[in-house]
Specification:
The protein has 455 residues and is α+β, with helices and mostly antiparallel strands. The protein folds into three domains: 302 residues, Rossmann fold (3-Layer(aba) Sandwich); 92 residues, GIY-YIG endonuclease, CATH 3.40.1440; 33 residues. The chain has twelve helices and 18 strands. It has a nine-stranded mixed sheet. A three-stranded antiparallel sheet has the order 17-16-18, with helices on both faces. A hairpin with a 4-residue loop joins strand 16 and strand 17. The longest helix has 30 residues. The radius of gyration is 27 Å and the shape is globular.
Amino acid sequence: MPKGKTQNQKANGNGGKAKGDLSIFGQESNPTTRRLAKNVPVRKHLAIRGIEADLGEENADSFHRDLHKDLKADYILANPPFNMSDWGGDRLRDDVRWKYRAPPVGNANFAWVQHFIHHLAPTGTAGFVLANGSMSSNTGGEGEIRQAIIEADLVDCMVALPGQLFYSTQIPVCLWFLSRNKRGGASVPASRKFTERRGKVLFLDARKMGRMLDRVHRELTEEDIQKIAGTYHAWRGDGGASVLASRGKEGKGSSVASPHQTYSDIPAFGKHARWRGPVDPIFHQTYSDIPGFGKSAKLDEIRAHGHVLTPGRYVGAEEAEDDLPAPRPGVFFVYAIACEGGSLYIGHTDDLRRRWREHITGQGADWTNAHKPQRIAHYEELTTREAAVAREKELKTTAGRRWLKAAVADGRARQAGGEPFEEKMKLLPAKLEEQFAESARLGKAIRRNLKPLDF
C-alpha cells in the first residue's frame, strides 16, 4: 500500500531536501503488480520530478512482512482487498498495530484500517476504499473497533459511493478519510491551515452519482468528483476547494489569484496535471449541509446511531426536484417544509421547485436557515394568490398546524410525488391492469412479426 511522506529539513529522513519535497513508500504482495510499479517508465516519471520512491526490495505481505515498520507517513492512500478472509490473522493476535482490538480472523477490513492508523504521522491523513460493511458491521468485534476509532476522533469523513464502479466487483463501496489532526491549524509542517473539526465527522452520500458506461459499469463524472472533493475541502477549510471552484467545463482551470502560485489545466482526477509553482491557493468555498448529500455530524449524534458510519443515516432525505410539480400559469402552491427537529415551515409560492431550491441553499427564510430543511412534507395547489395566502394563514393557526402534523404523520399529506398514499393504492390496480394489457399486446405483435421467419 502506498504511503506518502513530506518533511521539512529539520524533521528530515528526507535526505536534507527542501521543504515540501515528496517521498513515496509502498509495498505490494503480488509480484506482477509490483513489477508494474517498478518498471522503467514509472521510475523515470518519478525521478524527473525529483520524487524519492521506496517500494520495497521485493514483493511482500503488508501484514506479515511490513517493509516499512518504522514509517510514520503524512499521507496514506490505499485500495486494499475487500473482506479478505485468508489473511493469516490467527498468527497475528498480539500484533502491535491492533491498538483498538485484534481484528476478526475471518475478515481483514479492520486489520487494514489499524495498519494505516499505525503508520500515520502525528498530523497525518489517510484515505482508503473499503466495502460498505465496514461502516456498520458488528461481526467479530468489528463494531467495537469502529467505536474505539470514532471515540479516538480519528474519522474525518465518510463517503458512500454507488455500485458498479469496479471491473472486478459490482458491490458498492465507501471511502474512509482519517486524520490525526482535527484541531485546525497546519496539518503538515509548512502546509496550509485547516479549520477546527474536533468531535465532528463529515458524511457524504454519493450513491446516486455517476453515469453508466454500459450495462454493468458505472463512472463518476468530473462534476461528481468536483462535488465530492470540493465539499470535503470546504468542510476542512483548506485551499483545495478553490482549485475545484476555478475549473471550467472543459477541465481547464483558470489561474487562482494568489501571489504564491498559478495553477492551470487541471484534468479529471487520475490524469496528469500541470503545476506551475508551489501550491498555496486562496479558499473560495464555505461549507453548509446539503439535505440528501452532506451532513457534518457531532460525535453525540454518531453515538445515538450506535457508532454506525453509513452516510444515509445522517444526511437526511433529499427532496428530488423532479418530484415536485412544475410551475403552471394560474397555479399557486401552499407548502410545508419539515425541518430538523420536527418543526414545520409554512409558506406559499407560484414556483414550488424554485422555492425549495432557495430554502435548501440558504436563500429561503431565516427560519429554514436556522432549522435545516429536510423535505417538503405537504403542498396544496390553488388557483389564485389570494386563496394561497388565505390557506397559508389557516395552516399557521394552532388548529391548522395540528391538522398538518397529523396529516404528515399518518400519510394523508400531499407530498412530493403526487397523491397521498391511500389514493395511490386505489389507482395501483388500474395501472397494473393497463400494463398487463400492454404487455399482452406487445407479445402478440412480436409473435406475429416472427412467424414469417419460422422462428
